[in-house]
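S1.2 Input.
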Amino acid sequence: MKDSDALELEVARIVSGILRVDVGVDASRLNVPGWDSLRHVEILFAVEEAYGVTLDEAEMAALDSVKSLARRVSMPR
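S1.3 Output.
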C-alpha cells in the first residue's frame, strides 16, 4: 500500500487533470473554482477507475476533497 502522502499527490494529479488547473493536496470543492457538480462526478469516476474502487451514493456526496478521496482509496473493501 502506498503511503498517504504519495496517494494524496496522485489523487491531486487526477483532480488537476480533470479541472485543468494545478491543485494541491488541500484542494476541495469549497476552495477550487470550477470543481462543480459535473466535474465532481468526473473526478469520482476517474478515481474509481484509477484505483479499482466502487463508491456508493453516500460516499460520492461526502468525498469532496483530495484528502478525503485519498483516505477512501486507501481503505480496504
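S1.4 Remarks. The chain has a mean pLDDT of 94.
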